Amino acid sequence: MKKWLLIAATVLSFAGVAHADSIAGQVSAYRRAHGLTAVQIDGRLNALALQQAQAMAARESVSHTAGGLFQTRVAGLRRRLAAENIAAGFLTFSETLKQWEDSAGHRENLLMVGARRIGVASVSKPSSPYRRFWAMIITD
């Protein structure tokens, strides 16, 4: 089961440049509407987001600590700014983004001044009531 989960997550997370551009475009459009700079997809951040989404799916828990403490997980990035948004139960990135926009804490992360890069991943787990787990990391 765990091997299947890893394969499904990898395919979903790295489905192609067009999908990654769409995700970055959606987040960037939201940021631009609020007078902020655009963001671009970062492969290292995608990998970290994937690890977090996999950890949440494995535990069937929506938790910032499912994959370990956030500060520890991003320590190797050596970034001044870093934040994480997580979600579960939404089938598309558009639905997930809308939920984050409507949540004060998540919105604050999306609108982080100085952010330039994001990584986003989702893991499908049909046997879970959540069905899909999402993680996004945003940094300067």
In angstroms, what separates the terminal alpha carbons? 36 Å
Task: Quote the beta fraction.
Answer: 15-25%
Q: How does the helix and strand content classify structurally?
A: alpha+beta
Order of helices and strands: HHEHHEHHEE
Main pleated sheet: 4 strands, mixed
The radius of gyration over CA amounts to 14 Å
Contiguous uncertain segments of 5+ residues: 1-17
Q: For the residues shown, what is the average pLDDT?
A: 89
Please report the number of helical segments. Answer: 6
In quaternary terms, these chains amount to: single chain
Q: Give the overall form.
A: globular
The side-by-side strand order for the widest beta sheet comes to 1-3-4-2
Number of strands: 4
Please bin the fraction of helical residues: 40-55%
Folded structure, characterized:
Helices cover 48% and strands 19% of the residues. The chain has helices at residues 2-13, 17-33, 43-59, 70-74, 93-101, 104-110, and strands at 40-41, 82-88, 117-125, 131-139. Mean pLDDT is 89; it is low at 1-17. The chain starts with a helix and ends with a strand. The chain is globular, with a radius of gyration of 14 Å. It is of the alpha+beta class and 140 residues long. A hairpin with a 5-residue loop joins strand 3 (117-125) and strand 4. Strands 1-3-4-2 form a four-stranded mixed beta sheet. Helix 1 (2-13) packs antiparallel against helix 3. The protein contains six helices and four strands.
